[in-house]
Amino acid sequence: MPAVSEPVSPQPATPQAAAPQPATLAAFESAKGFMPAAEGLALYAAAAEAADALRLPLLEVGTYCGRSTLLLADAARAAGVTAVTVDHHRGSEEQQPGWEYHDATTVDPELGVMDTLPTFRRTLHRAGLEEHVLALVGRSPQAARLWGTPLGLVFIDGGHTDEHANGDYEEWAPHVARGGLLVVHDVFPDPADGGQAPYRVYLRALASGAFTEVSVTDSLRVLRRTGPGI
Ligand SMILES: C[S@@+](CC[C@H](N)C(=O)[O-])C[C@H]1O[C@@H](n2cnc3c(N)ncnc32)[C@H](O)[C@@H]1O
Fold first, then answer.
1. Test site for ligand 1: of 35, 60, 64, 119, most ligand atoms within 8 A of the Cβ
2. Fold (topology level) of 27-225
3. How large a percentage of the chain has pLDDT more than 70?
4. Quick one: signal sequence residues (predicted)?
5. CB of 32 closer than 6 A to ligand 1?
6. How far apart are CA 157 and CA 61, in angstroms?
């Protein structure tokens, strides 16, 4: 007797993570910056989810040349919200001349100091995403002290010292709305893989009881606000 195949019961569709527009992904891949593609896609998925659910602005600390900003801008465009990005554009400690992550093309030839703002503006303009981004040029704590709007997502990727990473957490995390997302980059549990300040901020956010882990993609951690405080 021929085998009778079992009726196939319908499987729930695997939820597809939201993905950026192909043109944005191409712009991201060719932009100067530090975020690998897998982390970028996870950042985009978080931004798209938060923007869609909460319809609140998305905020990034650490613009650099706009690589990750492109993804937040694409998610903001899709949901009709604004992506805000904060940077003094003078580079972090490890990006200064003589340090591991220095890029000589980011130095203003007239002043002899780093200025990533022109490259950032070109990156955003070429991707056609300028109108979805509000760029704040200045120090993160100064900007945060003037801020008064709830945020759908806060992405911390600014200075990687304890002082800066903790400052960014303390100043910006209170603005994450209930159900909103806190994303931390460069979280390395093993000191051999990288600096520990973002990891300590991540542990602090979890220990606060205000945030619950949603996803881990390499060094990118996505947490959701599930309680008050920080
Ligand atoms: C790691 S880079 C950001 C990388 C970027 N998100 C990307 O994907 O390419 C860190 C940035 O934070 C900025 N930064 C560091 N400390 C800051 C502070 N206190 N206020 C504003 N920006 C700061 C630096 O100028 C630098 O551009």
1. 64
2. Rossmann fold (3.40.50)
3. 93
4. none
5. no
6. 5
Burial class (CB in 10 A: 0-12, 13-18, 19+), 65: buried
Q: Would you list the domain boundaries of the chain?
A: 27-225
What's the confidence (pLDDT) of residue 4?
A: 40
**pLDDT, tens digit, 9 for 90 and up, residues 104-154:** 999 999 999 999 999 999 999 999 999 999 999 999 999 999 999 999 999
Rounded CA gap, 180 and 174, in Å? 11
Residue 14: C-alpha distances to residues 8, 18, 150, 179 (Å): 16, 12, 31, 22
Lookup result for tokens 């003037």: 146
Is there an atom of ligand 1 within 6 Å of 92 CB? Answer: yes
Place of tokens 């209170």: 174
User: Are the beta carbons of 140 and 61 closer than 8 angstroms?
Assistant: yes
157 lines ligand 1 (CB under 6 A): yes
Instruction: Give me the mean pLDDT over the 92-112 stretch.
Output: 94
The residue whose CA is least distant from atom 11 of ligand 1 is 62
Q: Integer distance in angstroms from the first to the last C-alpha of the chain?
A: 66
